[in-house]
Amino acid sequence: MASSYAANKLMAFSLGSTPAVVTSDTCIAREILTSPHFASRPIKESAKQLMFSRAIGFAPDGPHWRMLRRIASTHLFAPKRILAHEGARQLECAAMLSGIAKEQSLQGYVQLRKHLQAASLNSIMEIVFGKRYNTTKHDNETKKLNEIVREGFELLGAFNWSDHLPWIKYFYDPFRIQERCVALVPRVNGLIKEIIKEHRHGNSNKSRDKCDFIDVLLSLDGEDTLDEDDMVAVLWEMIFRGTDTTALLTEWIMAELILNPKIQKTLHSELQNLASNGGFLTDADIAKSPYLEAVVKETLRLHPPGPLLSWARLSTADVHLSNGMIIPTNTTAMVNMWAITHDPKIWNDPLVFRPERFLGSVNNVDVRGSDLRLAPFGAGRRVCPGKNLGLATVSLWVAKLVQNFEWVEDCERPVDLSEELKLSCEMKKPLFAVGISRPN
């Protein structure tokens, strides 16, 4: 719509009583995302009811948010912490590969998403809670966890008219969002507070590298101390921000590799040359793979997880832009990252999957927020704090999947790249494929 009105730099519109602007221009996007007057986010009614207003993603800019950000970047997402959890991620990846091989043997094809989501959930639970769930046995605790996470995703991803017409919630709520939020919160509190209780009475002599995020939060003192309700909100959000995103991005990557077998072959060849320990790939090996990095970047470009940078920004003052336009206070601002990453003025053949566009120093694009041509994790103060952990996890999974299997299209269930926007932009139809085991 913005391009049809020649409004790529900035287009204003209203969602009910919510004034909003959207930009498809990298310069304006940088001004918005890095402005101190856009350091807060609008909070959805469902997010508020589900306690996220006290967590990193939705908490307004201020001392509380800065404290949470500092704790997360220092104790959960620091490079040393990511490295310390490599063993757990390798273990979870091995379990995923085993499950995939078993399903391929029994059925002759694999539905990848369920394996990726199970591995993703377990990885984040290990890092945050120090717990691993056996997703193949479907015990009561695992079932309860999965139900809570899926319900939360549905509620946060659903379009809710009361976010833009507050008075309507009193008589029109077709998806029963308010009722379902009220029902979900006690279940979340019960689950997480029980795990916190286990940690309070558990082993207090863990080494620093073995500590999970709950251990860290319980060890904080002084002005960094969080009360239990704030801890629940932070931990609950960590499950959300770390679960589906990595699984869905990996699914998009594998779909493109299946549709582009030459690219898959090139990637496999590079990974084989890098494997240093009897063919076992480590994070250190994977970090030396420029082609894998290019494949991940190209997938993020072609299928950005949040096409409108879903976590929008809210202006806290009138903002004067370099083009002379003014964005008024209390305006929701969004960046159309899909339009930017598909702009033929920026990218040659933008609809073609071509990882080679990111090879070489001249073509090096940093996806972590410094280059607005490709900023899938946002930029500025509100850039995703878990981006490095997410990229490390996705890179490991893709490397292991390609190293252990040759992936081809299932003729009866062909790859469909149709998109569906929920919390993230995901494949509308889950990916089915045939995984042919490679010789050791």
TrEMBL record:
Indicate where this protein is primarily found: membrane
Per UniProt, the keywords (alphabetical) are: Heme, Iron, Metal-binding, Monooxygenase, Oxidoreductase
Q: Does the keyword Transferase apply?
A: no
InterPro entries per record: Cyt_P450 (IPR001128), Cyt_P450_CS (IPR017972), Cyt_P450_E_grp-I (IPR002401), Cyt_P450_sf (IPR036396), Cytochrome_P450_78A (IPR051996)
Provide the cofactor list for this protein: heme
The entry sums up its family as follows: Belongs to the cytochrome P450 family.
Could you identify this protein by its name? Uncharacterized protein
Q: Which organism is it from?
A: Rehmannia glutinosa (Chinese foxglove)
